[in-house]
Amino acid sequence: MKFSDQEQTLLRILQGNAALSLAELAEQSGMATSTVWRKMQEFENIGLLKGRVALLDPAKADTRLCVFATVRLADHAEASIAGFATIIRSHPEIMEAHAISGTADYILKIRCKDVEAYEAFMTHTLLRSPLVKSVVSSFSLKELKYTTALPL
Prior knowledge:
Blueprint: H1 5-16, H2 22-29, H3 33-45, E1 65-73, H4 78-89, E2 94-99, E3 106-112, H5 115-126, E4 132-139
Antiparallel strand pairs: 1-3, 1-4, 2-3
């Protein structure tokens, strides 16, 4: 999708702070308030603007531990893939899940309080599932970059 320079500016501003008022968005983007309102409606209607959220500090929310777990499924039948997707969606600890190429089938980004909480989650949820063949966990030692803003 192609965006005008003003649309790109508006989208960058929104990605930085979606709580701004229409007037503030208009001022910062150099657009009229009515134009900003119309653009916001367009972005929502085409599904580009999917929602507006508050980003929490993981340490203050007591989910400091970040784990990247690669998962291999026991088989690749459609029912197994659908069942694994159900597991993923039903556990809020799993922040992201991606089907990947290579030796694993999926990579999961998981947030927990600590190693003990992760061990319990992995043991009682992932490894108990007959759909899962193996899990390899990597613990984030230090976050070098985190953003939710897409490059425009």
